[in-house]
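Work Package 3 (structural annotation) set out to generate three-dimensional models for the target panel prioritized at the project kickoff. During this period the team completed the workflow that converts sequence records into discrete structure tokens, so that structures can be stored uniformly alongside our sequence database. As a representative example, we reproduce one entry of 343 residues exactly as it appears in the project archive.
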Amino acid sequence: MWVHIAVFGMILALYVGWRKGWIPSEGIGGREGIRLFITVALAGNVLGMLLTAGGSGQVYSRGYRLEKEDTGSYEKEFMVSVDGEEAGTLHIQVPEKESEEQKGQEQSQELTQEEQEKKDLAEEVARYNEEKADPDYYYLPDEIEGKTLTWETPEDTSGRLLTGLFLAAAMVVLVMKGREEQVQIQKRYEELLMDYPGLIMKFTLLVQAGMTVRKAFQKIAADYRRKKNRKPRTAYEEIRTVCYEMESGVSESEAYRRFGERCGQAKYKTLATLLIQNLQKGSSQMADMLERESVEAWEERKRKARVLGEAAATKLLFPMMLMLVVVMAIVMIPAFLSFYGGT
């Protein structure tokens, strides 16, 4: 039972640490991953505890009797203590029988002191039952030759096993949620990177057309809102958030700073820094700087596209090899069949 109590303590410590912020949820599946881990582990521990409580070992200090079954022989395991000292595990077989092979093994090998004591005890129990000669029951005596015997059924370990399995399943769930979170972060990173050139070009054109930075952000957000059926894009969603923040009273510089931090990429942080500097100091070269940034972004996009193309070609190498094997088989198998069929 102490194993289940320790598991409860571990789950409680994990929950408290998560709620207090001592254990960050990022990287290990987020809030959902932690919640699933706690739920699965807790459910498994409760079920395991119920099994352990229901199958705990019973102690028979006044002897015990086994009912003889009509189905044939059966064997049960008991822990036995002699005068308070544990003598070990004793297998009681009803009805008693011993194969010639077992007799030969006992004669051919030397028994240790512990094994000899168990053998002697088993023989004493057998003699005790011979004296009883009860056709219905097999007896485990509470005293033999002045020595007090205490019998105990072994504790059922299926509860601990079930708890361990559920803990393993909870860890698997946590790892899977962590990997899913990493995939989502990577997809978001790549999406932001791919959207940046188009975004910066739109922004540059609007600024060069005479719009203020704030109006340019609002124009891009409005154009994005009109395309309702379009799949949500992270960069444009962040621009909408910037517009909402400025409309709710957040200063422009603070909104741009938050925009760069939320995006988390160097390109977006650079853009946010340019916008904040333009607000604080003013810059007549703002349009030129944005244009240079736009050109660099498109060059970076081209390089990224080339890298993705090379990666796709590498991934296609294995399917192409499989197709080559299939084509060779289609060409060669009929030739072999016709050659051997003709001979």
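The two ends are 78 Å apart (CA to CA).
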